[in-house]
Design a protein that fits this description.
The complex is a heterodimer of chains A (227) and B (303).
Chain A lengths: L4 E6 L2 E6 L4 H7 L19 E6 L6 E4 L9 E5 L19 H7 L11 H4 L7 H9 L3 H7 L8 H5 L6 H16 L4 H11 L4 H8 L3 H9 L8
Helix pairs in contact in A: 4-5, 4-7, 5-7
Chain B lengths: L1 E4 L3 H5 L2 H13 L3 E4 L21 H11 L4 E4 L2 H16 L1 H16 L17 E4 H16 L9 E4 L9 H4 L9 H9 L2 E2 L13 H4 L1 H17 L4 E4 L2 H9 L1 H7 L8 E3 H8 L17 H6 L4
Parallel strand pairs in B: 1-2, 3-4, 5-6, 5-7, 7-8
Helix pairs in contact in B: 2-13, 3-4, 4-5, 6-8
Classes of the chains: A alpha+beta (227), B alpha/beta (303).
Chain lengths: 227, 303
């Protein structure tokens, strides 16, 4: 049985598409070929941020084209890249506090707490809350709250204070992971072992193996080794 | 007794001493300041435009958060107190803005069906915004404060500095007489200090002008300080982190400019309360003051 068809408007032009497609699939069905604006197709990369509106609703909504299903009378456009300001910095020289955030992104001071950014987030992140946490120097909280950010830029597109939320979040996560989060001792130990050449012989052995032997070894690997 | 507490950004990062001393004092008086689990900047300056609702949303949203925890919210920073109290007054008295603000806040959660709305009911100004000093007077009671004192501050000459934001505009703040306020005098008498009245106690310290016009701000602050120094104050108390910054930190510049300039310590009022309540000095933290108050306090055998 043929799929029920719906009408969508891509950048203002009408297309008849099957109702059970995602926006991305529907656009491909309509003849679009993605060179940009499409990445992982699994809601991880943020390359397919999309703004849409449905009939009789004045509000703009957002979603990821690879996840959001089409609806009848949906008006949409992808915003695959957002030309937001991105500060350049040397992470080694920064301190994890509000002063760092405000020096690199002084517009954070202008946050009105209107929460428009939060409403624009396809990932349902508490965007305003993490910006506010960054503003008061709570870098750990800002990093934690923004963890699911895909850097699609839709928050910045809607911000009346012209804050580039997603880049502020990136800075906070970098500050958190390099300055605040406890170091992973196991990792440090393993890196030291590698540098001492503990695994060199083993790697060299693997490199010299034939494809079949490698495959056998892979099949026989211990997936969850007991401690 | 638990009371919802809004610290504000400055007390969260820069004035940690003020936050710590105030929490310690509250504990000693049987009050637990319960920080709002979610809060944002109050907006820092109350908007002068009267036709914009978006500008007061920050204050209103914080009050709506507080309304989920109780019927009061306590704050310490003069700016936060000013913005929260005036935003509350708008919501209480302006029907149209109340409706608009609530519609806006409801839209926060409209598209998040799975999220519990933080507005179970409209925010109509049901929360009472209290300054910490009002909490001491009206909730704890100065008489109870007096009974809890461990150390006598007799002989310590303290000048209470109010600044602008607590007092003005009078009709909106309804805090105290903006020309001749007395609440901090009453507080200091409760502590047993010698209260130093000085004419500049409600004048401006220069405020945010310190950012763009340092000269003007320093001149304002110096006028305030010399007025208190002339009346032989040992130290000055304040409740505003920005006033403290201008009055204390900028004495470095004043000393360079004015020959024979006498430095005077400026501390938060809860740091002084902490001494009177016998709270350990490390919980009051005087390490951030440019003019160290410890020599003066040690002279009176208070630290």
């Amino acid at each position: 049985m043929a799929s029920e068809m719906v009408t969508i408007y891509v950048m203002g032009k009408a297309y008849e598409v099957p109702h059970d497609l995602t926006i991305m699939k529907a656009m491909e069905y309509a003849g679009y070929r993605f060179i940009r604006g499409c990445g992982c197709r699994g809601a991880f990369c943020g390359a397919c941020g999309t703004v849409y509106r449905t009939k009789d609703d004045y509000r703009l909504k957002v979603g990821l084209a690879c996840q959001e299903m089409v609806q009848d009378e949906m008006y949409l456009t992808e915003i695959p890249f957002f030309p937001g300001n991105k500060a350049t910095y040397n992470l080694d020289k920064l301190k994890p506090n509000s002063e760092t955030v405000l020096k690199l992104y002084p517009e954070v001071f202008r946050c009105l707490s209107c929460n428009t950014c939060t409403k624009a987030c396809p990932q349902d992140i508490e965007v305003m809350e993490y910006i506010q946490a960054a503003l008061r120097g709570d870098i750990a909280k800002a990093a934690d709250l923004s963890f699911d950010c895909l850097l699609c830029g839709l928050c910045a597109a809607r911000c009346p204070a012209e804050i580039v939320q997603y880049n502020v979040a990136l800075l906070c996560r970098r500050l958190y992971s390099s300055k605040i989060a406890p170091r992973a001792k196991d990792l440090e130990k393993r890196v030291k072992e590698m540098k001492r050449g503990k695994y060199d012989k083993e790697i060299a052995g693997l490199k010299s193996m034939k494809r079949r032997g490698l495959a056998e070894l892979y099949e026989a690997r211990d997936i969850e080794p007991a401690d | 007794m638990k009371i919802p507490y809004y610290p504000g950004c400055t007390l969260h990062e820069r004035a940690l001493d003020f936050d710590m001393a105030s929490r310690e004092c509250a504990n000693a008086l049987g009050v637990e300041l319960e920080e709002l689990p979610v809060w944002t900047c109050c907006g820092a300056v109350f908007p002068l435009t009267t036709d914009s609702v978006m500008d007061i949303l920050a204050g209103v949203r914080n009050l709506a958060y507080a309304s989920r925890m109780g019927d009061k919210v306590v704050t310490l920073c003069s700016f936060c107190y000013n913005v929260l109290k005036r935003s509350n007054k708008v919501i209480r008295e302006d029907e149209e803005k109340r409706e608009k603000a609530n519609l806006f806040l409801k839209a926060d959660t409209d598209e998040r069906a799975e999220m519990e709305s933080y507005l179970e009911q409209d925010y109509v100004g049901q929360v009472e915004v209290l300054h910490y000093i009002e909490m001491l007077r009206d909730v704890v009671g100065f008489d109870k404060v007096a009974k809890s004192l461990k150390t006598s501050l007799k002989g310590l000459r303290v000048a209470p500095y109010y600044g602008c934001m607590l007092l003005r505009p009078k009709k909106e703040m309804e805090f105290d007489d903006p020309e001749r306020p007395t609440i901090f005098e009453d507080f200091l008498e409760t502590l047993g200090c010698d209260v130093v009245d000085f004419p500049m106690k409600a004048e401006c310290c220069g405020g945010f002008q310190i950012v763009r016009d340092e000269e003007t701000a320093i001149a304002c602050s110096q006028t305030v300080l010399s007025s208190a120094i002339k009346r032989d104050a040992d130290l000055i108390i304040t409740t505003c982190p920005l006033c403290l910054y201008n009055l204390d930190r900028k004495q470095k510049e004043m000393a360079k400019r004015v020959k024979g300039f006498t430095k005077i310590p400026v501390i938060y009022f809860t740091q002084l309360l902490g001494i009177a309540l016998g709270i350990d000095e490390e919980h009051l933290d005087f390490s951030d003051n440019y003019v160290d108050p410890r020599p003066v306090l040690a002279g009176k055998k208070l630290v």
